[in-house]
């Protein structure tokens, strides 16, 4: 078991906090996490963290202009972020009455789950080529930033979409951000799953290759036995 444990950084004084002291809530949400300020995450600086935080505030406000259900306060409760990175999406929704599960894919270039915890958020790891344990809840809303690009060549898009469909409640919605070529492919598949879909331009304008797909899961059921019998009779008569 010792090989599986990540030891805390060593300290020189008994009053020091191993790993660095975090700010009190709610300041800790937007304060630079100790893992970043200490330089322990390669390539992620305090400036990158601050820029990412502001970027997601802008993006979430943009989302609310075209997803009326996300904009409606209290309409959604449980949200799933499939590629959380630094937790900026969840942080931007802190004033909304929602609960966000932040997922760091095991294939992500940088392990940022510790940053998410240091911000006071909740999160987990997940390989999206495999099923996710959702007990005891499903989700009203799913957000996926570049997930399909990340898993290209690893597993089929259809498998990821089916897992998302299993997780998502009827009349819930999905927002996908990705390259336009991937978005077009995904839209064809998700339309076949009886979703209502719409492609929206990037928040910075139509010239950006990254596009946004809004997909709403419909509440539908298979035709009843009586409807099937009538359809069979019509075919026989014709």
UniProtKB/TrEMBL annotation:
UniProt keywords, alphabetically: Glycoprotein, Methyltransferase, Signal-anchor, Transferase, Transmembrane
Recorded GO MF terms: methyltransferase activity
Entry superkingdom: Eukaryota
Keyword Methyltransferase listed: yes
Subcellular location: Endomembrane system; Membrane
UniProt source species: Trema orientale
Topology of this chain in the membrane: Single-pass membrane protein; Single-pass type II membrane protein
GO BP annotation list: methylation
Protein name as annotated: Methyltransferase
Primary localization: membrane
């Amino acid at each position: 078991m010792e090989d599986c444990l990540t030891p805390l950084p060593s300290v020189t004084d008994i009053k020091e906090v191993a790993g660095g002291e975090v700010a009190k809530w709610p300041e800790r949400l937007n304060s630079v996490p100790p893992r970043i300020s200490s330089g322990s995450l390669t390539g992620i600086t305090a400036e990158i963290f601050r820029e990412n935080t502001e970027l997601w505030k802008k993006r979430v406000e943009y989302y609310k202009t075209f997803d009326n259900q996300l904009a409606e306060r209290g309409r959604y409760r449980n949200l799933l972020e499939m590629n959380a990175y630094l937790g900026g999406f969840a942080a931007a929704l802190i004033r909304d009455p929602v609960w966000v599960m932040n997922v760091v894919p095991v294939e992500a270039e940088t392990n940022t789950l510790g940053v998410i915890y240091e911000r006071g958020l909740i999160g987990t790891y997940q390989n999206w080529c495999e099923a996710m344990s959702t007990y005891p809840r499903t989700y009203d809303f799913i957000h996926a930033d570049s997930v399909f690009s990340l898993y290209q060549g690893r597993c089929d898009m259809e498998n990821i979409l089916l897992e998302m469909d299993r997780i998502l409640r009827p009349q819930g919605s999905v927002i996908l951000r990705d390259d336009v070529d991937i978005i077009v492919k995904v839209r064809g598949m998700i339309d076949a799953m009886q979703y209502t879909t719409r492609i929206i331009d990037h928040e910075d304008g139509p010239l950006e290759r990254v596009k946004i797909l809004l997909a709403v899961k419909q509440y539908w059921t298979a035709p009843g036995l009586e409807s099937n019998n009538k359809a069979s009779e019509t075919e026989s008569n014709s």
